[in-house]
Design goal:
By secondary structure, this protein is an alpha/beta fold. It has helices at 2-31, 36-48, 60-106, 120-132, 145-151, 163-168, 184-197, 210-218, 227-240, 242-252, 277-280, 322-339, and strands at residues 113-116, 136-140, 154-157, 176-179, 202-206, 223-225, 260-265, 289-294, 300-302, 315-320. It is elongated and about 110 Å long.
Protein backbone atom coordinates (compact mmCIF):
# COMPACT_ATOMS: atom_id res chain seq x y z
CA UNK A 1 0.00 0.00 0.00
CA UNK A 2 2.79 2.41 0.93
CA UNK A 3 4.59 1.54 -2.31
CA UNK A 4 1.50 2.51 -4.33
CA UNK A 5 1.21 5.82 -2.46
CA UNK A 6 4.81 6.58 -3.36
CA UNK A 7 4.08 5.96 -7.05
CA UNK A 8 1.04 8.25 -6.94
CA UNK A 9 3.16 10.96 -5.29
CA UNK A 10 5.82 10.73 -8.00
CA UNK A 11 3.14 10.97 -10.71
CA UNK A 12 1.71 14.11 -9.09
CA UNK A 13 5.15 15.71 -8.87
CA UNK A 14 5.90 14.94 -12.53
CA UNK A 15 2.65 16.63 -13.50
CA UNK A 16 3.63 19.68 -11.42
CA UNK A 17 7.04 19.87 -13.15
CA UNK A 18 5.33 19.75 -16.54
CA UNK A 19 2.95 22.53 -15.48
CA UNK A 20 5.87 24.72 -14.31
CA UNK A 21 7.70 24.21 -17.62
CA UNK A 22 4.61 25.19 -19.63
CA UNK A 23 3.94 28.11 -17.27
CA UNK A 24 7.52 29.39 -17.54
CA UNK A 25 7.69 29.04 -21.33
CA UNK A 26 4.44 30.93 -21.91
CA UNK A 27 5.43 33.55 -19.30
CA UNK A 28 8.75 34.37 -21.00
CA UNK A 29 7.07 34.48 -24.40
CA UNK A 30 4.59 37.08 -23.14
CA UNK A 31 6.76 39.09 -20.71
CA UNK A 32 10.10 39.06 -22.56
CA UNK A 33 8.73 38.77 -26.10
CA UNK A 34 10.92 35.72 -26.77
CA UNK A 35 10.40 32.94 -29.25
CA UNK A 36 9.13 29.56 -28.06
CA UNK A 37 12.61 28.01 -28.37
CA UNK A 38 14.34 30.83 -26.45
CA UNK A 39 11.62 30.72 -23.79
CA UNK A 40 11.96 26.96 -23.34
CA UNK A 41 15.78 27.30 -23.19
CA UNK A 42 15.49 30.02 -20.52
CA UNK A 43 13.17 27.78 -18.44
CA UNK A 44 15.62 24.87 -18.77
CA UNK A 45 18.58 27.04 -17.72
CA UNK A 46 16.60 28.53 -14.85
CA UNK A 47 15.62 25.10 -13.54
CA UNK A 48 19.19 23.86 -13.91
CA UNK A 49 20.42 26.95 -11.97
CA UNK A 50 23.09 27.55 -14.63
CA UNK A 51 21.77 31.04 -15.42
CA UNK A 52 23.82 32.01 -18.47
CA UNK A 53 24.08 35.78 -18.83
CA UNK A 54 22.96 35.91 -22.43
CA UNK A 55 19.51 34.63 -21.56
CA UNK A 56 18.89 36.34 -18.22
CA UNK A 57 15.75 38.45 -17.86
CA UNK A 58 16.16 42.10 -18.88
CA UNK A 59 12.90 43.60 -17.66
CA UNK A 60 11.91 44.20 -14.04
CA UNK A 61 8.84 41.97 -14.38
CA UNK A 62 10.87 39.32 -16.13
CA UNK A 63 13.40 39.23 -13.29
CA UNK A 64 10.69 38.76 -10.66
CA UNK A 65 9.05 36.12 -12.83
CA UNK A 66 12.39 34.29 -12.96
CA UNK A 67 12.76 34.51 -9.17
CA UNK A 68 9.29 33.01 -8.65
CA UNK A 69 9.96 30.34 -11.26
CA UNK A 70 13.22 29.34 -9.56
CA UNK A 71 11.64 29.24 -6.10
CA UNK A 72 8.76 27.04 -7.22
CA UNK A 73 10.12 25.04 -10.12
CA UNK A 74 13.51 24.07 -8.76
CA UNK A 75 11.95 23.00 -5.43
CA UNK A 76 9.49 20.77 -7.23
CA UNK A 77 12.18 19.21 -9.41
CA UNK A 78 14.50 18.51 -6.46
CA UNK A 79 11.66 16.99 -4.46
CA UNK A 80 10.57 14.91 -7.45
CA UNK A 81 14.06 13.51 -7.96
CA UNK A 82 14.40 12.65 -4.26
CA UNK A 83 10.93 11.02 -4.19
CA UNK A 84 11.74 8.96 -7.28
CA UNK A 85 15.09 7.86 -5.81
CA UNK A 86 13.38 6.94 -2.54
CA UNK A 87 10.78 4.91 -4.46
CA UNK A 88 13.47 2.94 -6.30
CA UNK A 89 15.60 2.34 -3.20
CA UNK A 90 12.66 1.38 -0.97
CA UNK A 91 11.29 -0.89 -3.69
CA UNK A 92 14.58 -2.73 -4.02
CA UNK A 93 15.00 -3.04 -0.26
CA UNK A 94 11.41 -4.19 0.18
CA UNK A 95 11.71 -6.74 -2.63
CA UNK A 96 14.97 -8.13 -1.27
CA UNK A 97 13.56 -8.29 2.26
CA UNK A 98 10.45 -10.14 1.09
CA UNK A 99 12.52 -12.68 -0.84
CA UNK A 100 14.71 -13.35 2.19
CA UNK A 101 11.67 -13.75 4.45
CA UNK A 102 10.06 -16.22 2.03
CA UNK A 103 13.27 -18.26 1.74
CA UNK A 104 13.63 -18.30 5.52
CA UNK A 105 10.01 -19.42 5.89
CA UNK A 106 10.43 -22.24 3.36
CA UNK A 107 13.38 -23.68 5.31
CA UNK A 108 10.86 -24.80 7.95
CA UNK A 109 8.81 -26.81 5.42
CA UNK A 110 8.90 -30.60 5.67
CA UNK A 111 7.02 -33.30 3.79
CA UNK A 112 5.67 -30.60 1.50
CA UNK A 113 4.79 -30.61 -2.20
CA UNK A 114 6.63 -28.48 -4.75
CA UNK A 115 4.70 -27.50 -7.88
CA UNK A 116 6.84 -26.35 -10.81
CA UNK A 117 4.89 -24.18 -13.24
CA UNK A 118 1.79 -22.10 -12.59
CA UNK A 119 0.06 -22.14 -15.95
CA UNK A 120 -3.41 -23.57 -16.50
CA UNK A 121 -2.33 -27.06 -15.46
CA UNK A 122 -0.24 -25.87 -12.53
CA UNK A 123 -3.12 -23.78 -11.16
CA UNK A 124 -5.45 -26.78 -11.28
CA UNK A 125 -2.87 -28.97 -9.55
CA UNK A 126 -2.34 -26.36 -6.83
CA UNK A 127 -6.08 -26.06 -6.27
CA UNK A 128 -6.41 -29.82 -5.79
CA UNK A 129 -3.42 -30.01 -3.43
CA UNK A 130 -4.73 -27.05 -1.42
CA UNK A 131 -7.98 -28.91 -0.69
CA UNK A 132 -5.93 -31.62 1.04
CA UNK A 133 -4.36 -29.08 3.39
CA UNK A 134 -0.83 -30.24 2.52
CA UNK A 135 1.88 -27.53 2.63
CA UNK A 136 3.09 -26.64 -0.85
CA UNK A 137 5.35 -24.26 -2.72
CA UNK A 138 4.69 -22.98 -6.24
CA UNK A 139 7.68 -22.12 -8.46
CA UNK A 140 7.51 -20.31 -11.78
CA UNK A 141 10.02 -18.38 -13.90
CA UNK A 142 7.42 -15.63 -14.31
CA UNK A 143 6.41 -13.55 -11.31
CA UNK A 144 3.10 -15.06 -10.19
CA UNK A 145 3.40 -13.78 -6.62
CA UNK A 146 0.24 -11.65 -6.71
CA UNK A 147 -1.93 -14.51 -8.01
CA UNK A 148 -0.48 -16.97 -5.49
CA UNK A 149 -0.79 -14.48 -2.63
CA UNK A 150 -4.50 -14.01 -3.35
CA UNK A 151 -4.99 -17.80 -3.26
CA UNK A 152 -2.88 -18.26 -0.14
CA UNK A 153 -0.07 -20.21 -1.85
CA UNK A 154 3.63 -19.90 -1.06
CA UNK A 155 5.41 -18.68 -4.21
CA UNK A 156 9.04 -18.72 -5.28
CA UNK A 157 10.19 -16.83 -8.37
CA UNK A 158 12.95 -18.62 -10.26
CA UNK A 159 14.14 -21.14 -12.82
CA UNK A 160 13.12 -24.67 -11.77
CA UNK A 161 16.01 -26.21 -13.71
CA UNK A 162 18.57 -24.63 -11.37
CA UNK A 163 19.86 -26.17 -8.13
CA UNK A 164 19.63 -22.79 -6.42
CA UNK A 165 15.89 -22.40 -7.01
CA UNK A 166 14.94 -25.91 -5.89
CA UNK A 167 17.21 -25.63 -2.86
CA UNK A 168 15.40 -22.44 -1.80
CA UNK A 169 12.16 -24.46 -1.95
CA UNK A 170 13.80 -26.86 0.55
CA UNK A 171 13.58 -29.77 -1.86
CA UNK A 172 15.77 -31.91 0.43
CA UNK A 173 12.85 -32.06 2.90
CA UNK A 174 10.07 -32.23 0.29
CA UNK A 175 7.82 -35.23 -0.14
CA UNK A 176 6.68 -34.77 -3.74
CA UNK A 177 7.64 -32.72 -6.79
CA UNK A 178 5.00 -32.04 -9.44
CA UNK A 179 6.38 -30.76 -12.75
CA UNK A 180 3.55 -29.00 -14.59
CA UNK A 181 5.69 -27.25 -17.20
CA UNK A 182 4.56 -27.22 -20.83
CA UNK A 183 8.11 -27.54 -22.19
CA UNK A 184 9.39 -31.15 -22.22
CA UNK A 185 13.08 -30.13 -22.25
CA UNK A 186 12.64 -27.93 -19.17
CA UNK A 187 10.66 -30.71 -17.46
CA UNK A 188 13.50 -33.14 -18.13
CA UNK A 189 16.14 -30.72 -16.79
CA UNK A 190 14.01 -30.04 -13.71
CA UNK A 191 13.58 -33.77 -13.03
CA UNK A 192 17.34 -34.44 -13.35
CA UNK A 193 18.19 -31.56 -10.99
CA UNK A 194 15.53 -32.58 -8.45
CA UNK A 195 16.54 -36.24 -8.43
CA UNK A 196 20.18 -35.27 -7.80
CA UNK A 197 19.18 -33.05 -4.86
CA UNK A 198 16.76 -35.55 -3.30
CA UNK A 199 17.13 -39.20 -4.40
CA UNK A 200 14.07 -40.32 -2.40
CA UNK A 201 11.76 -37.62 -3.80
CA UNK A 202 8.53 -38.79 -5.44
CA UNK A 203 8.29 -37.03 -8.80
CA UNK A 204 5.23 -36.59 -11.00
CA UNK A 205 5.80 -34.91 -14.36
CA UNK A 206 3.81 -33.76 -17.33
CA UNK A 207 4.78 -34.98 -20.82
CA UNK A 208 3.37 -34.03 -24.20
CA UNK A 209 4.64 -37.07 -26.16
CA UNK A 210 5.47 -40.73 -25.51
CA UNK A 211 9.11 -40.03 -26.36
CA UNK A 212 9.25 -37.34 -23.67
CA UNK A 213 7.54 -39.73 -21.26
CA UNK A 214 10.19 -42.38 -21.85
CA UNK A 215 13.02 -39.89 -21.28
CA UNK A 216 11.45 -38.67 -18.03
CA UNK A 217 11.07 -42.25 -16.83
CA UNK A 218 14.74 -42.96 -17.54
CA UNK A 219 15.90 -40.05 -15.35
CA UNK A 220 13.86 -41.25 -12.38
CA UNK A 221 10.39 -39.70 -12.65
CA UNK A 222 7.95 -41.94 -10.76
CA UNK A 223 4.72 -41.05 -12.55
CA UNK A 224 4.03 -39.46 -15.92
CA UNK A 225 0.88 -37.53 -16.81
CA UNK A 226 0.05 -36.94 -20.48
CA UNK A 227 -2.88 -34.48 -20.53
CA UNK A 228 -3.91 -35.25 -24.12
CA UNK A 229 -4.11 -39.03 -23.53
CA UNK A 230 -5.71 -38.64 -20.10
CA UNK A 231 -8.31 -36.24 -21.50
CA UNK A 232 -9.10 -38.52 -24.43
CA UNK A 233 -9.40 -41.60 -22.21
CA UNK A 234 -11.61 -39.76 -19.72
CA UNK A 235 -13.92 -38.40 -22.41
CA UNK A 236 -14.31 -41.84 -24.00
CA UNK A 237 -15.05 -43.37 -20.58
CA UNK A 238 -17.64 -40.67 -19.88
CA UNK A 239 -19.37 -41.57 -23.13
CA UNK A 240 -19.16 -45.36 -22.71
CA UNK A 241 -19.51 -45.75 -18.91
CA UNK A 242 -20.85 -42.46 -17.52
CA UNK A 243 -22.10 -43.90 -14.20
CA UNK A 244 -18.77 -45.59 -13.51
CA UNK A 245 -16.89 -42.34 -14.18
CA UNK A 246 -19.24 -40.43 -11.88
CA UNK A 247 -18.59 -42.92 -9.09
CA UNK A 248 -14.81 -42.84 -9.54
CA UNK A 249 -14.79 -39.03 -9.61
CA UNK A 250 -16.86 -39.02 -6.43
CA UNK A 251 -14.51 -41.25 -4.43
CA UNK A 252 -11.33 -39.56 -5.72
CA UNK A 253 -12.56 -36.01 -5.09
CA UNK A 254 -11.44 -35.14 -1.55
CA UNK A 255 -14.16 -32.47 -1.26
CA UNK A 256 -16.78 -35.22 -0.93
CA UNK A 257 -16.93 -37.07 2.38
CA UNK A 258 -19.36 -39.82 1.35
CA UNK A 259 -16.60 -42.13 0.14
CA UNK A 260 -12.88 -41.69 -0.47
CA UNK A 261 -9.96 -43.68 -1.78
CA UNK A 262 -6.65 -43.25 0.03
CA UNK A 263 -3.17 -44.76 -0.24
CA UNK A 264 -1.41 -46.03 2.90
CA UNK A 265 2.36 -46.50 2.78
CA UNK A 266 3.64 -49.25 5.11
CA UNK A 267 7.07 -48.36 6.48
CA UNK A 268 9.30 -50.27 8.88
CA UNK A 269 7.74 -48.68 12.00
CA UNK A 270 4.16 -49.39 10.96
CA UNK A 271 2.27 -51.67 13.38
CA UNK A 272 0.58 -53.31 10.38
CA UNK A 273 3.81 -55.08 9.36
CA UNK A 274 3.46 -58.81 9.93
CA UNK A 275 -0.28 -58.66 10.54
CA UNK A 276 -2.96 -60.22 8.38
CA UNK A 277 -5.38 -57.96 6.54
CA UNK A 278 -8.33 -59.02 8.72
CA UNK A 279 -6.48 -57.88 11.90
CA UNK A 280 -7.10 -54.24 10.96
CA UNK A 281 -9.67 -54.58 8.20
CA UNK A 282 -12.23 -57.00 9.59
CA UNK A 283 -14.85 -56.18 6.98
CA UNK A 284 -17.13 -54.58 9.57
CA UNK A 285 -19.14 -51.48 8.80
CA UNK A 286 -16.65 -49.36 10.80
CA UNK A 287 -13.56 -50.42 8.82
CA UNK A 288 -12.50 -49.26 5.35
CA UNK A 289 -12.11 -51.79 2.57
CA UNK A 290 -8.76 -52.87 1.14
CA UNK A 291 -9.08 -52.57 -2.63
CA UNK A 292 -5.51 -53.60 -3.42
CA UNK A 293 -2.05 -54.26 -2.02
CA UNK A 294 1.10 -53.49 -3.98
CA UNK A 295 4.40 -54.96 -2.80
CA UNK A 296 7.60 -52.94 -3.18
CA UNK A 297 8.65 -55.23 -6.05
CA UNK A 298 5.58 -54.07 -8.00
CA UNK A 299 3.43 -57.17 -7.45
CA UNK A 300 -0.25 -56.25 -7.05
CA UNK A 301 -3.12 -58.08 -5.35
CA UNK A 302 -6.65 -56.90 -6.06
CA UNK A 303 -9.18 -57.43 -3.26
CA UNK A 304 -6.65 -59.42 -1.16
CA UNK A 305 -7.86 -62.16 1.16
CA UNK A 306 -8.16 -61.38 4.86
CA UNK A 307 -5.44 -63.94 5.64
CA UNK A 308 -2.83 -62.18 3.49
CA UNK A 309 0.01 -60.70 5.53
CA UNK A 310 1.08 -57.06 5.20
CA UNK A 311 4.79 -56.49 4.53
CA UNK A 312 7.18 -53.59 4.92
CA UNK A 313 7.16 -51.44 1.80
CA UNK A 314 3.59 -52.35 0.83
CA UNK A 315 1.14 -49.77 -0.45
CA UNK A 316 -2.47 -50.32 0.57
CA UNK A 317 -5.29 -48.82 -1.48
CA UNK A 318 -8.18 -48.22 0.90
CA UNK A 319 -11.78 -47.14 0.31
CA UNK A 320 -14.02 -45.78 3.05
CA UNK A 321 -15.64 -42.72 4.54
CA UNK A 322 -13.60 -39.94 6.11
CA UNK A 323 -14.58 -41.20 9.57
CA UNK A 324 -13.53 -44.77 8.77
CA UNK A 325 -10.15 -43.64 7.47
CA UNK A 326 -9.59 -41.31 10.44
CA UNK A 327 -10.52 -44.08 12.90
CA UNK A 328 -8.05 -46.39 11.19
CA UNK A 329 -5.22 -43.86 11.54
CA UNK A 330 -6.06 -43.38 15.23
CA UNK A 331 -5.98 -47.15 15.70
CA UNK A 332 -2.58 -47.38 13.98
CA UNK A 333 -1.20 -44.52 16.09
CA UNK A 334 -2.42 -46.14 19.30
CA UNK A 335 -0.63 -49.37 18.32
CA UNK A 336 2.56 -47.37 17.72
CA UNK A 337 2.36 -45.82 21.20
CA UNK A 338 1.81 -49.21 22.82
CA UNK A 339 4.78 -50.61 20.92
CA UNK A 340 7.00 -47.75 22.09
Amino acid sequence: MQHHRQIDRVKTLLIMVTVFIIYGTIGYMLLENLTFTDSLLRVALTFSTLGYGEVTSQTFIGKWFTIILIAGGVSVIVYSVSAFARLVIEGEISGTWKKKMIEKHLKNFKEHIIICGFGRLGKQVAEEVATEGIPMVVIDKEDRSLDCHKLGYEFLHGDVTLDETLTKANIEQAKTLIIAIGNDSESLACAVTARALNPSLFIVARASTKHASERLTRVGVNKIAMPVYIGGYHMASMALRPSVVDFIDLVIDSKHEELQIEELQIDRSSPLVGHAVHDFFSGSIDAPSVLAIQHKDGTKFIRPAGTKFIQEGDRLILMGTVKQLDDLMQKINSFKKEKE
